[in-house]
Amino acid sequence: MNIKAIASASCVGLLLSMAGGQAVAGSNVPKMADKAKFSVMAFNIEQLPKSVPWWTPGTEYRQDRVNNAETVILNNDADVVVLDEAFTSEAEALTNTDKIKNKYPYQTKLVGVQCSGDEWDSYSGDCSRSLVVISGGVKILSKFKITEKHQLTFDDSSKNSWDYWANKGAGLVKLDVNGTSAWLAGTHLQADEKTPEEDRKIRVKQITQLRTWATQKSGGAPIVVAGDFNVPYYEIDHNDQSAPKSEVSEEFKEAEKELGCALFPQASYPTFEKKYTYDMVKNPRAKLRLDKENTLAKYKNVLDYVGCIKGDAAAPAFPDLEGGKILDDYSVPSGEKGELKIPSDHYPLISWVEL
Question: Which residues belong to any copy of the Endonuclease/exonuclease/phosphatase domain (predicted)?
Answer without folding.
Answer: 64-245
